[in-house]
Design goal:
This protein is α+β, with helices and mostly antiparallel strands. Helix content is about 20%, strand content about 20%. The strands form 4 sheets. Strands 1, 2, 3 and 4 form a 4-stranded mixed beta sheet that branches. It has a 3-stranded antiparallel beta sheet with strand order 7-11-9.
Length: about 240
């Protein structure tokens, strides 16, 4: 009886242990997902490249300063009607025949510097072209050579053409502008400069040409300067002077 009971207990214990089975493993912990970079936005067309804006030309500038004697080695001498101490050097910007800004120099009497700056500011703003602008001393004060080189200039202690009297240039109160396009023309229609013959009649066309009643003539008239193109008989289309003459 005792042996039978022991066997029965063993069988029950065995069955109970088999029913439990092995312990379940704890669930695996999932690894954190790697961060994903944002999906780039699709591009449309080619990338835009900034277009540089064109550089504007410099604004007009003018500087008035005293002129030293050594800047006038040929155009001034003792006995001139105006002392060099009463003259002024005007350094200013002008619009060239090449459609670019340049810096030029004029010598005029002190009392007309404001007139010159006023007019040439307008010419520059209009992009009205001037061939070149050097002191006449660059040509040893030879008026013919300066004109032949189409040089715009002002002071020159010389007599008026065909006269024994002082020119207004000798007083620093006259200026010659683009003398090739605006020549000195005698009463019979002739000019001393071969390179200017095509410009002896008015009205005329071309860069730097001055015609009766145009804006250049009016600009000078507004500051009290007269144009040689209005003279009777002889015409001096290049010439402007304070009060005429």
């Amino acid at each position: 009886m005792k042996r039978t009971a022991a066997l029965a207990f063993a069988v029950i214990a065995s069955v109970a242990c088999g029913a439990a089975g092995p312990a379940a493993a704890p669930p695996a912990t999932a690894a954190p997902a790697a961060p994903q970079s944002p999906t780039p936005e699709p591009t449309t067309g080619s990338p835009t490249t900034a277009t540089p804006s064109p550089t504007a030309p410099p604004t007009f500038s003018a500087k008035v300063s005293r002129v030293s004697r050594d800047r006038l080695p040929y155009s001034w001498r003792p006995g001139c009607p105006v002392h060099h101490r009463d003259l002024r050097l005007v350094t200013l910007t002008y619009w060239g025949f090449d459609d670019k800004p340049h810096t030029g120099e004029l010598v005029v009497r002190e009392n007309v510097t404001d007139d010159i700056v006023t007019v040439f500011r307008k010419l520059y703003d209009w992009r009205w072209p001037i061939y070149q602008m050097k002191l006449v001393d660059a040509f040893k004060a030879d008026d013919y050579d300066s004109i032949d080189a189409n040089n715009t200039s002002a002071f020159n202690c010389r007599q008026a053409t065909g006269s024994t009297s002082w020119s207004n240039h000798a007083y620093g109160e006259a200026i010659d502008i683009n003398p090739r396009q605006n020549p000195y023309v005698t009463a019979d229609g002739d000019t001393a400069h071969d390179n200017a013959r095509k410009f002896t009649k008015r009205p005329a066309k071309g860069k730097g040409v001055i015609n009766p009643g145009d804006k250049v003539v009016k600009a000078f008239a507004q500051v009290g300067w007269e144009w040689g193109g209005y003279w009777s008989g002889t015409k001096d289309f290049q010439h402007f002077s304070k009060g005429g003459g």
